[in-house]
Write a structure and sequence with these properties.
The chain is of the alpha/beta class. The chain is built from seven helices and seven strands.
Length: 188
C-alpha cells in the first residue's frame, strides 16, 4: 500500500528561505519515488510546489480544500487546481480543512510555514503521527525544535515521532521507517 504524506507549509513563501520552493518540489518528487501519495491543503505556495514536484514525477496528488465547491475554491479562495488529480471540497474553512488533512495522513511534513502550518503540526503531534520537519526552510519549521524543548508537555504528545532533516530524500526515508514500524504488527 502507498503511504499518504501531507506537505504543510507557507501559502506565501516570501518569508521562507531562498531554496524552500526548490526543496518543496524535491519533497514532492521524493514522496513519489519512495512509493507515496501526496496530500496537501490544496493551497498556493509551498504545498503547491510540492504538488508540482509530485506531478512532475508522475505521482498522485490529492488536495483537501477549505472551500465548499470547485467554484468557491477557485473564485472565493483563489486556490490552485493545476497540480491535483482530485480535490476534496470540505466547506470547513481552514481550521476544519487542517483537521481533516492531518487526520488523513500517514505522516506530515512541515516546510517553512506560518500559523496554519503550526496548527497542522500540533494536530499531527497530538495524534502521534510521524512528522518530518525540513530544517533550514524558515518560518514554523525553524521554530519547532525550540518549541518542543521549551513547552512543558507531561504527556509528551508525539515527541518521539518528530524527525528533522535538511535533505528531502532522507526525511521521506525516515518517515517511511516510522510508518512501517507503526504498522508492522497489524494483521489484516
Amino acid at each position: 500500500m502507498k503511504y499518504k504524506f501531507v506537505v504543510s507549509g507557507a501559502a506565501e513563501e516570501g518569508f521562507c528561505t531562498v531554496d524552500a520552493v526548490q526543496k518543496a518540489e524535491e519533497i514532492g518528487r521524493e514522496i513519489i519515488k519512495q512509493n507515496g501519495i501526496l496530500l496537501t491543503g490544496a493551497t498556493t505556495g509551498i504545498p503547491d510546489f510540492a504538488a508540482k514536484g509530485a506531478k512532475d514525477e508522475g505521482g498522485v496528488v490529492i488536495g483537501i480544500s477549505p472551500a465548499a465547491s470547485y467554484q468557491h475554491h477557485v473564485k472565493t479562495y483563489k486556490l490552485p487546481i493545476k497540480n491535483y488529480d482530485t480535490i476534496i471540497f470540505t466547506g470547513f474553512d481552514y481550521s476544519g480543512r487542517n483537521l481533516l488533512l492531518t487526520k488523513a495522513a500517514d505522516a506530515v511534513i512541515v516546510i517553512c510555514g506560518g500559523f496554519g502550518t503550526l496548527n497542522e503540526f500540533t494536530i499531527a503531534l497530538e495524534d502521534n503521527k510521524p512528522i518530518g520537519v525540513l530544517e533550514d526552510s524558515g518560518g514554523t519549521a525553524s521554530e519547532i525544535d525550540d518549541l518542543m524543548k521549551k513547552i512543558n508537555d507531561p504527556h509528551r504528545h508525539g515527541a518521539g515521532k518528530v524527525m528533522f532533516s535538511k535533505d528531502p530524500k532522507d526525511l521521506i526515508a525516515k518517515l517511511t521507517k516510522l510508518i512501517e514500524k507503526d504498522q508492522k504488527d497489524l494483521k489484516v
